[in-house]
Amino acid sequence: MENASNWSEPKVTPTTCRLNDIAEFETDTVATFGVFDGIHIGHQTVIDTLLKRATQHQLISVLIGFYPHPLAFLAPERCPPLLTPLSKRVETLQQLGIDRIIMLRFDDQIAAMAPEDFVEHVLLKKCRARHVVVGYACQFGKDRAGNAQKLVDLANVYPFEVTIVPPTAIDGTPVHSTRIREALTQGDLRCSSQLLGRYYSLIGNVIPGDGRGKQIGFPTANIDTHDQVCPPNGVYAIRAKLEGRWLDGVLNIGVRPTFNDTTLQVESHFFDFDETIYGKSVEIFLIEKIRSERKFPNPEALIQQIQRDINTAMKILDETHRVPENVR
Description:
- The chain is α/β, with parallel strands linked by helices.
- It has 2 domains: about 20-175, Rossmann fold (3-Layer(aba) Sandwich); about 200-320, Beta Barrel (Elongation Factor Tu (Ef-tu), domain 3).
- It contains 10 helices and 15 strands.
- It has helices spanning about 40-55, 70-75, 85-95, 110, 115-125, 150-155, 175-185, 190-195, 210-215, 300-320; strands spanning about 30-35, 60-65, 100-105, 130-135, 140, 145, 160-165, 170, 175, 200-205, 220-225, 235-240, 245-255, 265-270, 280-290.
- The strands form 4 sheets. The chain has a 6-stranded antiparallel beta barrel with strand order 10-11-14-13-12-15. A 5-stranded parallel beta sheet has the order 3-2-1-4-7, with helices on both faces. The protein has a two-stranded antiparallel sheet with strand order 5-6.
- Strand 8 and strand 9 form a beta hairpin.
- Helix 7 packs antiparallel against helix 8.
């Protein structure tokens, strides 16, 4: 990341920077900006265009990402749940080959900026942008007064050029983060994967549970997913990334009705794995849903079903050879 921290290593826990933390660039750039939650195939098309323009003009590519989501600052009650936490967002953007990534904290200073001020002070003065690439639906500036056409108008006043990237459509409908959230909440993993260009993943630290899984012979790791979008309650075949290792397993999302629990939990059982990993970060890729959550008459019936779930997951994962985190 430019100036605020060194983002050459994806494993570094990223932080945001404020506008005053960004030193002025020493060379001209091609820039894009936005929230980029999900970094879906529409975002990837914008980034591909950014990289092509940078190569064409022999300039470095810069992405300015707003974090947290502007609504988290302006209207928290209307802020949508996250698709990609900050760390995953930066890691995925790095994989796409952008030269400089600035995760700019959305605060009162940014929120109060008129579109003209954002262009002049952020894009032109700080980043020395000579070309700006944005998606067709971009919005920026105070009260979202800026849009793609506003950028075109400002390019007639200030010394920069603009490329507006048209929508990327799947099944005749533009790809956007809201559509992915809807697919996930409906349990349509096939659709969400298609729109994202990769399997959807949940990321969080492993937290202590009540040990019930271990008591019935299937130890689980409970994951704190914070405010990420979760699919419907049920059992899923998963691949997990833990400290650079890949693990296969099953994930249960639900309240464990067989035991009359009421607290939603996200807990994973990894195959052939017996380590204490409390406090460690794990990324869970949702490969396929196995079944919905349901209440069993007794723990013995649940145990039998869990074994069937594991057998089903093993078959699914044996047939799935794609690397879950690929974005291309």
